[in-house]
Design a protein that fits this description.
Keywords: Membrane, Transport. InterPro entries: ABCG_dom, P-loop_NTPase. This is ABC transporter family G domain-containing protein. GO terms for molecular function: ABC-type transporter activity. With 116 residues, the chain is α+β, with helices and mostly antiparallel strands. The protein has two domains: 56 residues, no CATH class; 54 residues, no CATH class. The chain has five helices and four strands. The strands form two sheets. It has a two-stranded parallel sheet with strand order 1-2. Strand 3 and strand 4 form a beta hairpin. The longest helix has 18 residues. It is globular, with a radius of gyration of 16 Å. The N and C termini lie far apart (48 Å).
């Protein structure tokens, strides 16, 4: 519920206990509202369905409290491919990001870049 004219929303795990269809409807409504008011929404979701994932313009992926990706959704797979992590064809992007985020990414990125 929006109770002030604020233009930023911060939401944590709003899909807990909801089915994927309801989560999609909620995120889609938030997206439409944010675009109308010219605001920003930061939404933490665990394992979003592919159709819900596609609603996001940008992705912030955290691993052990560190940002490992922050940018446009359409470039996230390219970024991870450059870093040596390729999403299998049978796997959805959101599921891939969930799995890759539990790897020690900071160590892996440093190793790939020749820092270790």
């Amino acid at each position: 519920m929006l109770v002030t004219p604020g233009r930023a929303l911060f939401m944590d795990e709003i899909s807990t206990g909801l089915d994927s269809s309801t989560t999609f409807q909620i995120v889609n409504s938030i997206r439409q509202t944010i675009h109308i008011i010219g605001g920003t929404a930061v939404i933490a979701l665990l394992q979003p369905a592919p159709e819900t994932y596609e609603l996001f313009d940008d992705i912030i992926l955290l691993s052990d409290g560190h940002v490992v990706y922050n940018g446009p959704r359409q470039y996230v797979l390219e970024f991870f491919e450059i870093m040596g992590f390729k999403c299998p064809k049978r796997k959805g992007v959101a599921d891939f990001l969930q799995e890759v985020s539990v790897i020690d990414l900071l160590y892996e990125f440093s190793r790939i870049m020749g820092l270790f």
